[in-house]
Design a protein that fits this description.
Layout lengths: L8 E2 L11 E3 L4 E6 L6 E7 L5 E5 L11 E10 L5 E8 L12 E6 L2 E8 L3 E9 L6 E8 L6 E7 L2 E9 L7 E8 L8 E11 L2 H4 L6 E2 L8 E5 L6 E5 L4 H8 L10
């Protein structure tokens, strides 16, 4: 018998920015949209030129604590290979109130996803990296075990492959931490950076958040070159090129998703 995932929270696009605790996107726009690619409604975070960041933070109705384990899973897309900071495990407080500004941080930079551990004293340690394709959905999964001493840990997975597993680290700062998703960087102030989030959820294990959309196009957005089908409860990925996807995908998703069966 399949074990049901224990999803503790889901960012519902119907709630808009209200799905999160707060946003940091003054001068930008956080909204929802639909591409008719099988993902349904998705979050859009659009940072125009002239501002540093457009981020959504926290989870409405939830708090975070030390000596806990959290897993988040989400689909993520960027309009460039230089979106800079796309996730922060951001510490509360400022200045002397913090020992770590952001213990765990993820960047999209130079066509790669880069994962950093930032130790007390702002000591940056590169702990993992993998190739990133802008204009394509990627499934990200992040697990953090919070500790205010050096016994914490975290893992990052992308598209079903483990990018990093780091142990023996401090993952809970003096005033606590909060997750942030989006695009941020002083070095990209002069350009537009647009990111999209889908199916963001919280659980207590990777299995809780490893349940994917049953069926969606992969590859470059808007391209009919491929389809990815994720079998619910199994985590099996099938890639079927061109028109040959249609029988299997229609049986899972139906034909009325606005994207037909063309090659």
């Amino acid at each position: 018998m399949a074990v049901l995932a224990a999803v503790l929270w889901t960012a519902n696009p119907a709630s808009g920015a209200g799905a999160f605790d707060y946003t940091a996107c003054d001068g930008g726009q956080i909204s929802t949209t639909i591409w008719n690619d099988g993902h349904g409604d998705i979050f859009s975070l659009n940072k125009p030129a002239g501002i540093d960041r457009c981020e959504a933070a926290g989870a409405a109705g939830r708090t975070w604590s030390n000596n806990s384990t959290y897993w988040w899973g989400w689909y993520f897309d960027t309009n460039s290979d230089n979106a800079q900071t796309v996730f922060q495990w951001k510490s509360w407080g400022t200045g002397d109130q913090q020992q770590q500004n952001y213990p765990v941080l993820m960047k999209v930079e130079g066509g790669r996803l880069k994962v950093w551990y930032v130790a007390p004293g702002e000591t940056w340690q590169s702990v993992g990296t993998t190739a990133w394709t802008a204009g394509s959905w990627h499934k990200l999964e992040l697990g953090i075990t919070t500790r205010s001493d050096n016994t914490g840990s975290f893992e990052v997975w992308m598209d079903g492959t483990k990018v990093v597993g780091k142990t023996g680290v401090r993952t809970w700062d003096d005033m606590g931490n909060n997750p942030r998703w989006g695009t941020y960087g002083t070095g990209i102030n002069g350009v537009n950076s647009h990111v999209w989030i889908d199916d963001l959820k919280l659980g207590q294990s990777r299995a809780d958040v490893d349940q994917g959309r049953p069926c969606f196009r992969s590859g470059l957005r808007g391209s009919p070159c491929a389809v990815m089908i994720t079998a619910w409860g199994e985590g099996t990925l099938l890639r079927i090129s061109g028109p040959h996807w249609s029988q299997c995908c229609r049986s899972r998703c139906g034909a009325g998703r606005g994207w037909g069966g063309g090659g």
